């Protein structure tokens, strides 16, 4: 995993690209004009680990709400703009930290030039956010979708560069995972800018997390990507949770505990699934990156439990408790949860 | 995605490797000695799309149960054997379609030779299932884990080849995703055999599905892998569901409907998350691979709804219904679910 070199950008206090950690983004799902609801959701997002928040700006009133929203939160705010360049100008005036424009629907060259001039004046980065669902049918209709998406972004990048603007981030999102991967691969070597990754409209968490993990995961493994947003039909904190699980799986970020647990099989003599669920629930209160293993039998149990910070390797109706690779006790099945959590809590408090 | 060339094998009626579709496996979690419970779970697994089922054989009675279990199910059965080569011999005698042996704990060369002779006689393939958690600490202690796993498998492969046995499948599972990927990459070009992919002890579904999707997804995208097993601390049908979602996301298999749904944002004027959840619930009854889109607004809505077999693109309190790319009606928010499902059901019945 050698990371692609990208020009770092500042979105408010957060650096995206260069050597900065992969940044986790999400988007509010409240009505932007409902200022208390939007502020509240941004605060929830900050607590769950979101680092940059995007807010839809469908109309003038939403743009004007950004002034108060921004004053009441500490996360950097990106205004998501479609169709009307006036809204981009209004969002910049409201003090947003970044803009996302959709080149598929953003008006003519002159209108875009006005937005770019205003962003340049304020040093506000712009994401060129191409989306398969809003690519004009007339744009290179015979080319494959991934190529059309990459070329649409390249055209917009050239326009911005011609105007002396280089605070650029790019995304190329499709629902189809291979299309998304191809589009990013096509553009990765052609531009020096930071890339924002996502699989668009990935659906509900049960399926959308899988689809997002594969698309975003494959690109990150190729060293492509500086910030990610998981799109799920769910509360935005679920998007942030999935984003961190993707980054944790690849060893790119740490956040909270990690539970290693065996799938159970005909060999298990303890109810491992119920135990793992109970441990997982208790781990929600733990913030340190502690690795916990809940293992059902003697095949892989001692190995995994030894490798974790705290672990259980179960046998017939009982389990051995491991701390940092050493057995510290053996307890009966009914005491496993408490014994394991006592070790976890003691590590968490250190 | 050019697929690695592998020697196809037959596990009962199912071909693994070569040009065969990527095969979905799971494992029973019942006590193998409880024959009715195990038969029942294998039947559930068959209904949910599992193609090969593995069964743990911890003792003699479990091995003997395989005779009756096998007579009562139609899925091919692989016996999972650790520690005791007698159990492998007993499982072969019971008529299993495949064996999984763990070279980390399988006894001496002579014992393994006896198992191999018995498998050869019956034309039963053997998976060499290396697992990070059960790799002997004394095996190449200074080498990196991925290399140790690959070398352990290579050693076992050579032993089998020396004995004239070539019905081999290999797996190299770790909890750590980059380690798992490296291990498979190391062995992929060195052997001609089919590869069974998995990320071991991946945990509960919410996190384990993500971890599995990244590990298995990256390898499949590199063309590596002939059969997959998702290991989750959950009912085995959830493992099968996740396996198919991984394969569907990469366009490698089709199974059941696919729901494209937008994450919702401050632009949505319909409760998209609730609608998507309701549609998803109704889609459980649909077996055909129908693509359904539930989209919140005019930005990407029409594009995605047009691209799906059936879709909704919502506006202010209402939505346009799309069938195969054409708008077939516009209905108010309270009628969206029924109107969409009427189109889905009519496609499903065709």
Unreliable parts of chain A: none
| Helix vs. strand class of chain A | alpha/beta
**Main sheet overview of chain A:** 8 strands, parallel, barrel
Output the CATH homologous superfamily of the largest domain in chain A. Answer: Dihydropteroate synthase-like
User: Which percent band covers the strand fraction of chain A?
Assistant: 15-25%
* N-end to C-end Cα span of chain A: 33 Å
Provide the residue-averaged pLDDT of chain A: 96
| Tally of structural domains of chain A | 2
CATH architecture of the largest domain in chain A: Alpha-Beta Barrel
Most extensive interface = A-B, 87 and 87 residues
Helix-strand topology string of chain A:
EEEHEHEHEHEHEHEHEHEHEHEEEH
What's the alpha carbon Rg of chain A, rounded to whole Å?
Answer: 23 Å
Oligomer state equals homodimer
Counting DSSP H or I runs of 4 or more residues, the number of helices of chain A is: 11
User: What strand order characterises the main sheet of chain A?
Assistant: 3-4-5-6-7-8-9-10
Query: Which CATH class of the largest domain in chain A?
Result: Alpha Beta
CATH fold assignment of the largest domain in chain A: TIM Barrel
Tell me the helix content of chain A: 40-55%
In total, the number of strands of chain A is: 15
């Amino acid at each position: 995993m050698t990371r692609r070199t990208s020009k770092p950008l500042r979105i408010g206090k957060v650096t995206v690209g260069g050597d900065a950690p992969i940044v986790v983004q999400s988007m509010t799902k409240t009505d932007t004009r409902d200022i208390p609801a939007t502020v509240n959701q941004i605060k929830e997002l900050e607590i769950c680990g979101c680092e940059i928040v995007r807010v839809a700006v469908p109309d003038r009133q939403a743009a004007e709400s950004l002034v108060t929203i921004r004053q009441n939160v500490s996360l950097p705010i990106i205004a998501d703009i479609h169709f009307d360049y006036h809204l981009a100008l209004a969002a910049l005036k409201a003090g947003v930290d970044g803009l996302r424009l959709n080149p598929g629907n953003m008006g003519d060259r002159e209108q875009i030039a006005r937005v770019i001039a205003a962003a340049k004046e304020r040093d506000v980065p712009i994401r060129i956010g191409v989306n398969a669902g809003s690519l004009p049918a007339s744009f290179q209709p015979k080319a494959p979708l991934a190529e059309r998406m990459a070329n649409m972004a390249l055209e917009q990048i050239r326009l911005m560069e011609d105007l002396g603007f280089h605070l650029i981030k790019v995304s190329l999102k499709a629902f189809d995972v291979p299309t998304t991967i191809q589009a990013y691969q096509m553009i990765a070597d052609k531009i020096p800018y930071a890339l924002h990754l996502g699989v668009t409209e990935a659906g509900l968490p049960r399926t959308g997390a899988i689809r997002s993990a594969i698309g975003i995961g494959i690109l990150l493994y190729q060293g492509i990507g500086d910030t990610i947003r998981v799109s799920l039909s769910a509360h935005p904190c679920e998007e942030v949770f999935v984003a961190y699980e993707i980054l944790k799986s690849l060893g790119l970020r740490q956040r909270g505990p990690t539970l290693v647990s065996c799938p159970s099989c005909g060999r298990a003599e303890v109810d491992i699934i119920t135990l793992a669920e109970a441990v997982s629930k208790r781990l929600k209160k733990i913030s340190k990156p502690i690795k916990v293993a809940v293992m059902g039998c003697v095949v892989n149990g001692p190995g995994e439990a030894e490798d974790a910070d705290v672990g259980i390797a179960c046998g017939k109706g009982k389990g051995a408790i491991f701390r940092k690779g050493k057995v510290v006790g053996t307890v009966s099945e009914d005491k496993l949860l408490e014994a394991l959590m006592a070790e976890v809590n003691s590590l968490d408090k250190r």
